[in-house]
């Protein structure tokens, strides 16, 4: 069913935002307020003197200095129109009433009418409470209309209309007295109502600008938070990389050092070969750590660049050399490094077509490489295994969904007194989860341990598709 149209009262309440708690901040009194009041005072005095020079104003016998005082006091109200809007609105109404009773000619001057309009407008535009603002402005308007009605009914208002139209032949459709009374009320309703409506429009505009500024600040804060989160995520990624690199090479060095120690006296050639492996592995570890630390410096420079003016240079002024990150094509070398006297390793590549493993997207290849690297390091540190097989399976064609999978199998059991922190396996799971992969880590029913990770491949993950 179509929703019922809101009633007139609800629409009026919505326009005046009677239930809105937002308060428009009032600026302190400044030089602009003083200058505005001075300009209106000068304009009012000049206007008064111009009128007094061409006509006889009805001033109730008040001296000139009192007339000037009435103009100057009304202009002074503008100074506090934003800091005390409701008080100024009430004082302006009182000023209009007193001057209108004692010096109607002065109260009717254009300059004072503009000042009274501004005071009522400010009461609505700057008041903290919408309900109080509408109550005060509406009360002032009703009081002024009642005062006009009193002047017409009991004062000389109607007589002035009669005297003004006595020698004029009416050409309109209405009686002159009725037309004069109606026109007086219409002008005043538009005058007071216009001040209230325009003041409310100004308040709504200020509220909208405030909301836009809040939204802009929220968006900026969220963007800053996302930037910091991206930096933190990249640091965590680098931390995992460092953990894998250091763990892998340190375990290789340990295995090779143990092998060299056992054969140092009996087979010096094998000991020399093991020491050469240690040298190569240590250099490779240092190179990879330098690359990762260079990446970390780049992240810091990029984060600082966001806070620097455009065109500003970082502290380094250049990007450090970085080795290409390993991929699935490097797994064979990784497994070969682990093939020692105490641990025999073998690598098996199974793919749906030749070269498919080389077409896997670099992020997926790196993740699978690091998972195998961590699995082999864990075998050296925490297992009694004497043999390990690494399988890489890449299926990009045929029935079923394409995937890339690595599986590390060993024939050992946990070594006593070498329980790890669990961060290595957590890193494997996080790497797999970042690509929506499936992880299977744990002992095998037939003995040994298995680490298997399968990552589904989309079209963008296969370079040849």
UniProtKB/TrEMBL annotation:
The chain crosses the membrane at residues 34-52, 64-80, 135-157, 177-203. Gene3D superfamilies: 1.20.5.1930, Histidine kinase-like ATPase, C-terminal domain (3.30.565.10). Residues 303-327 are annotated as: Disordered. Keywords: ATP-binding, Kinase, Membrane, Nucleotide-binding, Phosphoprotein, Transferase, Transmembrane, Transmembrane helix, Two-component regulatory system. It holds the Pfam family HisKA_3. It catalyses: ATP + protein L-histidine = ADP + protein N-phospho-L-histidine. SUPFAM superfamilies: ATPase domain of HSP90 chaperone/DNA topoisomerase II/histidine kinase. Residues 234-298 form the Signal transduction histidine kinase subgroup 3 dimerisation and phosphoacceptor domain. Residues 367-458 form the Histidine kinase/HSP90-like ATPase domain. GO terms for molecular function: ATP binding; phosphorelay sensor kinase activity; protein dimerization activity. The keyword S-adenosyl-L-methionine does not apply. InterPro entries: HATPase_C_sf (IPR036890), HATPase_dom (IPR003594), Sensor_HK_TwoCompSys (IPR050482), Sig_transdc_His_kin_sub3_dim/P (IPR011712). CDD domains: HATPase_UhpB-NarQ-NarX-like (cd16917). Its EC number is 2.7.13.3. The keyword Transferase applies. GO terms for cellular component: membrane. PANTHER family: NITRATE/NITRITE SENSOR PROTEIN NARX-RELATED (PTHR24421), NITRATE_NITRITE SENSOR PROTEIN NARQ (PTHR24421:SF10). This is histidine kinase. It comes from Knoellia subterranea KCTC 19937.
């Amino acid at each position: 069913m179509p929703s019922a149209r809101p009633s007139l009262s609800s629409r009026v309440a919505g326009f005046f935002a009677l239930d809105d708690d937002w308060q428009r901040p009032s600026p302190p009194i400044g030089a602009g307020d003083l200058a505005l009041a001075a300009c209106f005072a000068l304009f009012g005095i000049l206007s008064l003197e111009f009128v007094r020079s061409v006509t006889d104003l009805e001033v109730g016998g008040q001296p000139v200095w009192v007339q000037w005082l009435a103009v100057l006091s009304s202009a002074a109200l503008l100074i506090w129109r934003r800091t005390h809007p409701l008080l100024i609105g009430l004082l302006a109404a009182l000023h209009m009433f007193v001057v209108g009773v004692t010096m109607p000619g002065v109260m009717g001057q254009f300059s004072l009418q503009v000042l009274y309009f501004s005071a009522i407008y400010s009461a609505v535009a700057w008041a903290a409470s919408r309900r109080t603002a509408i109550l005060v402005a509406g009360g002032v308007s009703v009081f002024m209309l009642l005062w006009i009605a009193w002047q017409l009914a009991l004062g000389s208002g109607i007589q002035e209309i009669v005297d003004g139209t006595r020698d004029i032949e009416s050409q309109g459709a209405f009686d002159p007295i009725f037309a004069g009374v109606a026109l007086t009320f219409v002008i005043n309703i538009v005058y007071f109502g216009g001040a209230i409506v325009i003041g409310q429009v100004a308040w709504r505009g200020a509220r909208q600008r405030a909301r836009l500024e809040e939204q802009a600040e929220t968006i900026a804060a969220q963007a800053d938070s996302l930037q910091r989160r991206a930096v933190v995520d990249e640091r965590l990624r680098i931390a995992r990389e460092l953990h894998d690199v250091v763990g892998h090479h340190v375990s290789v060095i340990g295995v090779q050092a143990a092998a060299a120690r056992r054969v140092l006296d009996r087979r010096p050639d094998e000991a020399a070969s093991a020491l050469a492996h240690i040298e190569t592995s240590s250099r490779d570890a240092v190179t990879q750590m330098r690359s990762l630390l260079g990446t970390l410096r780049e992240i810091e420079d990029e984060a600082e660049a966001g806070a620097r003016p455009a065109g500003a240079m970082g502290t380094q002024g250049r990007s450090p050399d970085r080795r290409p990150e390993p991929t699935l094509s490097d797994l064979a070398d990784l497994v070969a490094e682990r093939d020692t006297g105490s641990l025999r390793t073998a690598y098996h590549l199974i793919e749906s077509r030749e070269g498919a493993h080389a077409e896997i997207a670099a992020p997926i290849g790196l993740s699978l490489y690091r998972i195998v690297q961590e699995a082999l390091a864990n075998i050296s540190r925490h297992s009694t295994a004497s043999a390990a097989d690494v399988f890489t399976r890449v299926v990009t064609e045929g029935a079923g969904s394409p995937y890339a999978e690595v599986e590390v199998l060993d024939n050992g059991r946990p070594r006593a007194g070498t329980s790890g922190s669990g961060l290595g396996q957590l890193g494997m799971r996080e790497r797999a989860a970042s690509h929506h992969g499936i992880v299977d880590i744990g002992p095998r029913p037939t003995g040994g341990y298995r680490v298997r990770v399968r990552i589904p491949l989309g079209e963008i993950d296969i370079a040849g598709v």
